[in-house]
C-alpha cells in the first residue's frame, strides 16, 4: 500500500524521513506502508501573545458583542428589584434590617448600588471595547470598498436572475456611456444624489460595457448603527456621572433654596459638584387647580412661583404639568400637589409641642389625604404623641360618625384623627418615613368601652386629646406642590444618537444591494455573453449599424425590485439614444 504526496507540498507535521522518500521507479512518488513510522504529530503552541490575540478576536466578534449586550440587560435587572442607595437609602436600610441573613451579602456584592458596581461597570466597559473593536476593522474595509471600482462585467450574463436585452442604433461606446448615465442618475425627488457607482470599460473587438453597483449605504447604515450604540453608551455613562435630581415639597407661602440640603431627596452622579448648583430661591405664591364639575377629573394645575436670582432679581413664573420651569440648565417639573393643614399641638402642661404645616398625601380622585403628625418635644416627661388620620377637603357625613370627601376642592375641610401615645422611636438611629407611624412602641387611645378614639376637627377648632395628653388645633389649610428638579447634560446627545441608530438600522435593513451590467456589442459580432440579434444587423430606417444590448442584474438576497430596476435602466438607456428599439427580455 502506498500514499500519494503531491510534489512540492511541505507538511511540517510529517517527519522529515517520510517527506524525503525517493520516488518510485514508475514515477508515482509513492512510499511503502512499512516505511511510514515515527513520532506522533506535534501541534504548535500559541504562547502568551497568541492567547492574547485569540482573546481579542473573541472579544471583538459580533456574537460576543451581542452576548455582552444581553448580559448588560440582565445585569440591570437587580437595579429594578432591589432598592438603590442612590435613590432611597432609607429603603436600603429597611431591606437590610428585614433580611438580616441575605441583606449584608447583597450589600457586599453591590446589589444596592448596581449601576456603579464593579461587575456592572466591567460588563459596560467590555461591551464598549467589543463594539469599538468590531467597528474599526469593518470601517477600514468598508472605506476601501467604497473607494474601489465596481466589479467588471461578467463574461456570461445569462446565468443571472434578472436579464434584459434590446438593440440600439448607436455605437457600443455610446450605448455603454448612456447606460452609465442612466444608472448614475439620481431619484426624481433627489436628482443630485447618484444611485450607482459606475465604471465604463472597453472590452475590445468593438464591445463596450457599463458596470454599476449600489447598496453600500446598507453597510454604512450598519456602521452608523453601531457607532450610535457606542455614542449611546458614552452619553449614558456621562449622564450618570454628571446628572443630579432632587425632589422637594413646597407649601404655599413658603419657598426653597436650590441647594442639596433643601431637597427632601437628592440623587447625584459620581462626578457631580455641589458648588455647580446656582443658588437661586423659589417661593410658591398661589396654586390653581381646575376639576371637571361633573366627573371631578383634573383639568389643569398651575403653580405661580417667584424665582429670585443670586443678585436679588425676582421673576414671576408658572409651572404646569408637562411645562417645566427651566433654570441653570435644569428643568423643574410639577410632579404633584395636595393639602397641608396647619396644626398646633399643646402638651398636658399647655406648652406648644408642635406647630406647622403637615403635608397630607392624596389617596383618591377627591383628594382624601392621609397624613401623620409626630410630636416628640413634649414637656413634663409625658409620653410622646402621634396623630394619624385623614383630611377630607369637602367633608360629607354619610352615616352617624362616618364621613367621606365629595369634592377635591376645599369647600368644607375636616381632619379625622386617631391618637397614639408612647415612644415614637425617633432616637433608634433607623431612618423613618415621615408619612408612617411606628406603632411598635405606641398605644392607641381608646374610650371606656375600649373603642378607638376618633377626633373630628374643622378649621379654627381646638379639640382636647384623650387621657389628658393636651390639645390639637386646626389653624388653617394650605396647598403644597411636589417639585422635581432634573439635570442631565447628556440627554440631547442621547436623543441624537438614538435617532442616528434608528436611521442606521433602517438603512441597513431596507437599502438594496444591487449590481447591474449592460454590455453593448456590434450586431453580428461574436457575443461574449451569447446574446442573439433579435432585430437584425442594421437599422432599417437609416441603414446605421445596429448594436445589440444585453443587461443583467444581481442582488444580495431576495430582491423583488431587481428586475424592474434593470428594465428601468435599459429603457432609460435606449430611450436616450436616437433611433433605438427595445427587444424582448
UniProtKB/TrEMBL annotation:
Ranges of biased composition (kind: Low complexity): 522-543
Domain ResB-like: 62-567
Residues that span the membrane, as ranges: 64-82, 114-136, 223-242, 490-511
Domain of life: Bacteria
Matching InterPro entries: Cyt_c_bgen_Ccs1/CcsB/ResB, ResB-like_domain
Membrane topology summary: Multi-pass membrane protein
Region annotated Disordered, chain positions: 1-42, 522-560
Main location: membrane
Keywords for the protein's UniProt record, in alphabetical order: Cytochrome c-type biogenesis, Membrane, Transmembrane, Transmembrane helix
Name of the protein this chain belongs to: Cytochrome c biogenesis protein ResB
Species, as recorded: Cellulomonas fulva
Amino acid at each position: 500500500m502506498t500514499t500519494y504526496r503531491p510534489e512540492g507540498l511541505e507538511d511540517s507535521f510529517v517527519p522529515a524521513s517520510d517527506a524525503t522518500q525517493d520516488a518510485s521507479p514508475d514515477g508515482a512518488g509513492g512510499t511503502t506502508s512499512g516505511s511510514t513510522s515515527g513520532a506522533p504529530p506535534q501541534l504548535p503552541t500559541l504562547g502568551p501573545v497568541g492567547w492574547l490575540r485569540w482573546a481579542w478576536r473573541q472579544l471583538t466578534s459580533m456574537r460576543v458583542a451581542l452576548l455582552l449586550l444581553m448580559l448588560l440587560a440582565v445585569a440591570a435587572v437587580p437595579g429594578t428589584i432591589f432598592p438603590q442607595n442612590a435613590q432611597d437609602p432609607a429603603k436600603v436600610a429597611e431591606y437590610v434590617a428585614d433580611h438580616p441573613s441575605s441583606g449584608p451579602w447583597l450589600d457586599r456584592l453591590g446589589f444596592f448600588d448596581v449601576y456603579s458596581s464593579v461587575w456592572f461597570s466591567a460588563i459596560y466597559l467590555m461591551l464598549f471595547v467589543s463594539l469599538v473593536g468590531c467597528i474599526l476593522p469593518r470601517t477600514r474595509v468598508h472605506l476601501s470598498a467604497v473607494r474601489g471600482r465596481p466589479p467588471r462585467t461578467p463574461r456570461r450574463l445569462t446565468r443571472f436572475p434578472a436579464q434584459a436585452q434590446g438593440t440600439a442604433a448607436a455605437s457600443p461606446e455610446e450605448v455603454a456611456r448612456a447606460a452609465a448615465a442612466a444608472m448614475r442618475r439620481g431619484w426624481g425627488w433627489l436628482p443630485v444624489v447618484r444611485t450607482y457607482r459606475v465604471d465604463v470599460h472597453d472590452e475590445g473587438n468593438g464591445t463596450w460595457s457599463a458596470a454599476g453597483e449600489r447598496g453600500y449605504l446598507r453597510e454604512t447604515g450598519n456602521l452608523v448603527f453601531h457607532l450610535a450604540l457606542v455614542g449611546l453608551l458614552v452619553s449614558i455613562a456621562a449622564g450618570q456621572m454628571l446628572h443630579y435630581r432632587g425632589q422637594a415639597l413646597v407649601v404655599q407661602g413658603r419657598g426653597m433654596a436650590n441647594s442639596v440640603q433643601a431637597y427632601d431627596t437628592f440623587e447625584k452622579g459620581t462626578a457631580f459638584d455641589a458648588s455647580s448648583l446656582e443658588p437661586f430661591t423659589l417661593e410658591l405664591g398661589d396654586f390653581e387647580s381646575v376639576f371637571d364639575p361633573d366627573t371631578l377629573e383634573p383639568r389643569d394645575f398651575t403653580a405661580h412661583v417667584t424665582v429670585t436670582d443670586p443678585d436679588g432679581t425676582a421673576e414671576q413664573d408658572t409651572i404646569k404639568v408637562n411645562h417645566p420651569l427651566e433654570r441653570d440648565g435644569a428643568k423643574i417639573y410639577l410632579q404633584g400637589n395636595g393639602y397641608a393643614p396647619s396644626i398646633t399641638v399643646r402638651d398636658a402642661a399647655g406648652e406648644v409641642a408642635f406647630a406647622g404645616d403637615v403635608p397630607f398625601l392624596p389617596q383618591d380622585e377627591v383628594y382624601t389625604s392621609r397624613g401623620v403628625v409626630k410630636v416628640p418635644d413634649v414637656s413634663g416627661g409625658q409620653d410622646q404623641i402621634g396623630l394619624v388620620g385623614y383630611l377630607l377637603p369637602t367633608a360629607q357625613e354619610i352615616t352617624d360618625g362616618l364621613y367621606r370627601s365629595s369634592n377635591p376642592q376645599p369647600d368644607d375641610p375636616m381632619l379625622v384623627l386617631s391618637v397614639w401615645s408612647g415612644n415614637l422611636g425617633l432616637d433608634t438611629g433607623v431612618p423613618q418615613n415621615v408619612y408612617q407611624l411606628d406603632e411598635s412602641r405606641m398605644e392607641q387611645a381608646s374610650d371606656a368601652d375600649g373603642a378607638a378614639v376618633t377626633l373630628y376637627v374643622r378649621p379654627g377648632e381646638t379639640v382636647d386629646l384623650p387621657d389628658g395628653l393636651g390639645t390639637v388645633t386646626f389653624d388653617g389649610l394650605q396647598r403644597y406642590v411636589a417639585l422635581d428638579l432634573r439635570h442631565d447634560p447628556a440627554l440631547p446627545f442621547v436623543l441624537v444618537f438614538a435617532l442616528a441608530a434608528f436611521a442606521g438600522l433602517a438603512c441597513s435593513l431596507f437599502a438594496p444591494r444591487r449590481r447591474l451590467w449592460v454590455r453593448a456589442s456590434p450586431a453580428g459580432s461574436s457575443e461574449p455573453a451569447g446574446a442573439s440579434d433579435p432585430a437584425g444587423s442594421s437599422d432599417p430606417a437609416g441603414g446605421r449599424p445596429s448594436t445589440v444590448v444585453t443587461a443583467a442584474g444581481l442582488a444580495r438576497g431576495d430582491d423583488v425590485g431587481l428586475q424592474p430596476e434593470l428594465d428601468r435602466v435599459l429603457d432609460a438607456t435606449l430611450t436616450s439614444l436616437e433611433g433605438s428599439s427595445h427587444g424582448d427580455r
